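Exercise 7 asks you to align residues with tokens for two separate proteins.
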Amino acid sequence: MTEADVADTDHRRGSDQSLVDIVVGEQISQRAALMAILLPSANNVSVMITRLVDDSLPAFVARMNATARSLGMEHTSYTDPSGFDDGTVSTAADQLILARTAGSDPTLAAMVSTMEYDIPVQGRVTNTDLLLGEDGFVGIKTGSHESAGGCFMFHARRTLDGRTVDIWGVVMGQQGRNLLTAGLYAARQLVVAVAPMA
């Protein structure tokens, strides 16, 4: 972590973004960085990790958009690595493609099903997916912002007609006093409607 990283984190703190605490000289593993992004949605780490992949933020965002196109996500345009920027747009259908693609990777699937993880300096972080481990929910990622509402791409496993089924879904734009809770509630309602508990 550099002085520029700390300054960027402090700048983001002023706009009420989800972050983890960092200090100059801190070193964390790639796994810890990904856990910071996947569990509490650390926007500051999302930006830092771009250095591992590309030389610049614009190059990384261009790679994100190229990957989205290659997956068939035709209505998605990324303008930043975290999704916080209002210029980033997508649809539930496109995000469902991403959820199924990412969820098919065993390592990533294990990461998003983790309840808590210890990160240097910040300490223990908790998964914002509060449905994890309940009603068959096994992941994937929450998100919330004034302009996007409560969002949740989810994966649940339920028993239907005596067999286990995987249910993938995405809810976006949910409104309520707590946007995160609104997104989780909408996802739970969808899963129960598709595969009621016996």
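Second protein for Exercise 7:
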Amino acid sequence: MTMTDPIADLLTRIRNALQAQHTSVDVTWSTIHERMVEILKAEGYIDGFARVQDGSKTYLRVQLKYGARNARVISDIKRVSSPGRRVYVGADEIPLIQGGLGVVIMTTPRGVMTGRDAKKLGVGGEILCYIS
């Protein structure tokens, strides 16, 4: 059986691992997954990640991050676009999440980036997810 929405699978695996208070989670590797995880690292939502080769399979091992008293750093992670309902915005329509405290991850003609970076470059695109 093929997966119809690999990005939703990535977000769900991270959400479930955080809920279960795991220290790390393995997700399937793809270029877009790796870029999304790089953004999570740069924005301070995860401790790190590594690409792991297991025979013919490649996956990402994501090191999850917790705050004081094991509080989750990522409180909400939400898929916006889906294969059945794409959500596109122009550069001036990119939303602010929690008054700018959250992050919009989007795919643009210049690659996968945060909404903040897309606004600076003046490009719009497809909103993949919101993270706060």
